[in-house]
Design goal:
The protein is α+β, with helices and mostly antiparallel strands. 39% of the residues lie in helices and 14% in strands. The strands form two sheets. Strands 1, 2, 3, 4, 9, 10 and 11 form a seven-stranded antiparallel β-sheet that branches. Bound molecules: FE2/S2 (inorganic) cluster.
Amino acid sequence: MSEKLSTAEILAAIRSGSASAEKSAPPESSASPSETPAESPAAAAGAPSGTPSILDAIRAGGNAPAADKPAAEKPSSTAEILAAARSGGAGGSKPAGGSVPEGTSAILAAVRGGGAAAPAAKKKKTEVAVPAIDPAAVSGLSVSEMIQAARAGQSPEEAETRPVALPAKPLRSKTVVKPVAKKTETVQRRGFLGSVVAWMTAPIVIAWTSLCATVGIASLATARFMMPNVLVEPPTKFKIGPPSDYSPGTVSTKWKAQFGVWIVNAEVDGAQMVYALSTVCTHLGCTPNWLEGEQKFKCPCHGSGFRKTGVNFEGPAPRPLERMGIRLAPDGMLEVDKSVKFQQELGQWENAASYVPVV
Ligand code: FES
């Protein structure tokens, strides 16, 4: 009785119903609760199993350690029983190891399990350090993601921004799926472009493309060769307005650039008339200029000169300028016909079709 009993020993003694729960018999007290019923079947049949049964047995004083105490000192309430268990058990002595369970649950677990050291060890093994998590920060995450973040030791913000691979369960958070989808789309686009470039740079494709281009160009050239070359020229007949537009004694250069004719209103052999002179020099075909101050046509090529009537008087030109056909149309307009030519050296200027008399 000199040493205090542990809680486990007390409870083991309660279960076994033995009155001699002394420290002098450590082999019997150190046996585990699971071995005790096998060694003493009769005691196991009468031993309390639940917490209420154990507490009732202690209150009733049916156990030998409680019977040794005076009736006034027996614990009656649960608090007193637990206090007695904390202070050293029914035998009034603490265990040698000094490990006494502190909480009520621990004491009851020790009573059920047969000792205080074993539950304490189990508790240490099952303790998990859970990091502090802000409820507001994990409101948008699923349970699996929160557990994953807690296990990885990262904050909920990191778990939200960093993709977490959960192979057994599909991802449900859009903030986690988006980066993976973009990366996959980029890889697919690069793969497609690479395939197109590889196909376009293949030797067989280049050869066929060159052949088709050559055949197409040759076909277009053949089609153009089959079409005749058409020279578009101005019309040979054109109207130049009424005779009143051309004053007597004047040379009009209005139609020189467009139709290649001068319109002259002059007196020839005592008759006032309007006629059309060709702008082609009779020497080598240059285009003379009308010099109003000198009242002559002057060829810039070789210096041939022509009078207002068209007769050559200087330079290498061998003959006078040619007249074009002209007539007064029914509508009162002068009409020039370049398809008809009249030469003075041939006496053709006497033809009435080579001039239009005016009053
Ligand atoms: Fe006109 Fe020679 S071409 S003078």
